[in-house]
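In the current project phase, the collection of sequences with tokenised folds has grown. A representative record is quoted in full directly below:
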Amino acid sequence: MYMIRAIVRPEKTNLILSELNSAGFPAVTRIDVVGRGKQRGVRVGEVVYDEIPKDLLMLVVQDEKDKEDVISIIAKYARTGEKGAFGDGKIFVSTVEEAYTISSGTKGL
């Protein structure tokens, strides 16, 4: 199993969630977050905004194919324009050893 965490622009979240749902990935956790990337925020005149609002999307998928499908969907719909634009977000992937459903106590997704 894999956990996919994607930090995306808030205005892209609904489209990404809709596309993930249509592709068979309805189970997603969405969290409002703030942060900055390697560009160290945004400067507007003399003011520097170093806590940029983003959304963190988290989901766990069963196998390699699902992982690749989810990454492809997120990357496609989170992108704002040309490749390499700052601020479009980041995707992190890690392995999940076990998962349990609290209500039933069953192991697995």
Summary: The first helix runs from residue 10 to 22.
